[in-house]
Specification:
The structure is a single chain. 51% of the residues are buried. The mean pLDDT is 97. Helix 1 (7-30) runs antiparallel to helix 2. The chain starts with 6 loop residues before the first helix and ends with a strand. Strand 3 (96-105) and strand 4 form a beta hairpin. The protein has 4 helices and 14 strands. Helix content is 28%, strand content 25%. With 255 residues, it is α+β, with helices and mostly antiparallel strands.
């Protein structure tokens, strides 16, 4: 069931989204060679605490997980696509880092992700991240009243495939509201004009995930959470929480 949010609820979701945006900005600023992923998690946790927000990630346990998630951010490095658990790993020169973060504030959730490089970037990584951001922008541009979920999926998938990148078949965006994950699912590839019609008040987390090697294959790491590319190529992940309104898409997690 898809819940349509009132304009007042969307404003409340914007407040949660801004906490997420501040957390991601702080994490990216703190990320440097020698900094551990656990230290980045604490940076994000500090932003949430200061805002009086809680983490929808911490303790989250979906059906596929064998253990609850132990952190407030997902920190995925190099060939990790999504759901990376923060560890004591210390960032190295040239690492590609994807950070996913959520916040729960006033009963509403926000969810967003960024990818960036640490130290001297590889040109291939710069292109990968830029393409992920372009795919996200294309998905957001398609999130207008009268379009359908398939239009968002098609917009994202077209940018990714034109760039020569792979796409995870089984993971994508989702509805968001009182809970971090709600209906409807938002695939990263699909046919235009298909799927649920977009209406004022729908709020979606739109999140492209790109695999640099061009294949769609991935596997779960032994921790049961981290999803990694099968070919060892690098990956990028971008995400925004977006409200669909009669005035056009509104990015609630804008930084």
């Amino acid at each position: 069931m898809v819940e349509l949010k009132t304009d007042t609820s969307i404003e409340a979701m914007y407040e949660a989204g801004q906490v997420v945006g501040r957390a991601l900005t702080a994490v990216q600023k703190a990320a440097d060679v020698g900094v551990s992923l656990l230290e980045l998690d604490e940076v994000a946790h500090g932003v949430l605490r200061e805002a009086g927000a809680s983490s929808p990630f911490l303790g989250y346990r979906p059906a596929f997980a064998t253990t609850p998630f132990p952190a407030v951010i997902c920190a995925s490095v190099n060939d990790a696509i999504v759901h990376g658990i923060p560890t004591g790993y210390r960032l190295r020169d040239g690492d590609l880092v994807s950070i996913d973060c959520g916040a729960q504030l006033g009963g509403w959730a926000g969810d967003s992700a960024i990818s960036f490089t640490v130290g001297r970037p590889r040109p291939a990584d710069v292109r990968l991240i830029e393409t992920a951001e372009q795919a996200l922008a294309a998905g957001i541009a398609a999130a207008v009243v009268g379009n359908r979920i398939g239009d968002i999926a098609h917009a994202i998938g077209t940018v990714c495939r034109d760039g020569g990148y792979g796409i995870m078949d089984d993971f994508g965006g989702h509805g968001i509201g009182r809970r971090m994950h709600e209906d409807p699912p938002v695939p990263n590839e699909g046919r235009p004009g298909r799927g649920l019609a977009l209406r004022h008040g729908m709020v979606l987390a739109i999140e492209p995930m790109l695999i640099a090697g061009g294949t769609d294959e991935y596997h779960a790491a032994p921790d049961g959470w981290t999803l990694k590319t099968n070919d060892g190529s690098r990956a990028a992940h971008t995400e925004h929480t977006v409200a669909i309104t009669d005035a056009g898409p509104r990015v609630l997690t804008a930084r």
